[in-house]
Amino acid sequence: MEKVMLNNGVTMPVLGFGVFQIPDAKECERCVLDAIEVGYRSIDTAQIYGNEEAVGRAAEKSGVPREELFLTTKVWISNGGYEKAKASIDESLRRLRTDYLDLLLIHQPFNDYYGTYRAMEEANRAGKVRAIGVSNFYPDRFVDLAEFCEIRPAVNQVETHVFHQQEKVREVMEKYGTRMESWGPFAEGRNGFFSNPVLKGIGEKYGKTPAQTALRFLIQRGIIAIPKTTHRERMEENFNVFDFALSQEDMGAIARLDRGESLFLCHRDPESVLYLINYGKQ
C-alpha cells in the first residue's frame, strides 16, 4: 500500500475504505472486516454515520495490530464548539474501542468550528489524535481557519472525482501543506461515471475498469481516496490499482472531464446549509 506523508510527519495510506451510508451495524462490521482482509488499513467513518461502534468492533476482531490501522472519524455539526467537541471526541474513542485516532476532521464548516478545532488541537497535544484536519471546507473558510489556528490542518476531505477535480482548491491547500482527500471518488455513479467512454477507453488499455482508472488518476495526483462499497469483489477491484500507471496523455484526457462544479450540493447555498445543519436531528 502506498502512503503519503501529512504535514506533521504522520504517514497515511493513499487508499482507504469509507463506510458512509452503511448504518446497519452487522453489515458495517462485515464490510470493514472484509476490507481489512483484502488489505485496506485505512478506515474512514464519522459520528453522523452511526457506525463508529461497528468499525471499532471490526478493527478489534480483525486481529491486525492497532498501530497498523489508520482510523479516521469526523466531528458532526451538532457537536460543534469547544465543550461539545471535546466530549464527542472522547465518545468517539469509546465507540471505536481505541486510545487514539489517527485522523480527526471537522465534518462541515458550520456551527462554532473554531471552538471545535481548539478541542481537536488539545486532543492532538494530549496524544488522543495523531493528526487533525477538516472536511468540506471551501478555500475561503479553509484559509481563514488555517491562518488563525495553531496546528494547520493536515487534510481537507472534499468532494473530488473526475467530474469535479478541485484543482484550484488543491493549489490553495498546498500552500499550507494540507493534503486533499476525496470523498465520493466515483461520484456515487452520477453523470454516467461507470460507463464514461474516456475512463472506459483508457482503462481497457491497462486491463482496468473505469473505477480503477479514476482511482489511479486521483492517486497519481497525490490525492487520498476512500471508495465505499459493500461488495467484497468491488473492494478487491478498488484495491488493485497499484500495478499500473497512467501516461501523461491519459492524465490529460481525464483532466478534461472536469466540469468544475459539484454533483451534490453547494455549501454556500442557504438551503443546503440548513439541510446539513438539521441532518441527524430527526
From TrEMBL:
Family to which this protein belongs: Belongs to the aldo/keto reductase family.
Molecular function terms, GO-annotated: 2,5-didehydrogluconate reductase activity
Organism taxonomic ancestry: Bacteria, Pseudomonadati, Verrucomicrobiota, Verrucomicrobiia, Verrucomicrobiales
Enzyme class: oxidoreductase
Residue intervals of the NADP-dependent oxidoreductase domain: 16-258
Pfam families reported in the protein's UniProt record: Aldo_ket_red
Keyword Oxidoreductase: yes
Coiled coil: none
EC code(s) of this entry: 1.1.1.274
Keyword RNA-binding: no
Site for Lowers pKa of active site Tyr, residues: K74
Catalytic site positions: Y49 (proton donor)
Name the record gives this protein: 2,5-didehydrogluconate reductase
Domain of life of the source: Bacteria
Species in which this protein is naturally found: Akkermansia muciniphila (strain ATCC BAA-835 / DSM 22959 / JCM 33894 / BCRC 81048 / CCUG 64013 / CIP 107961 / Muc)
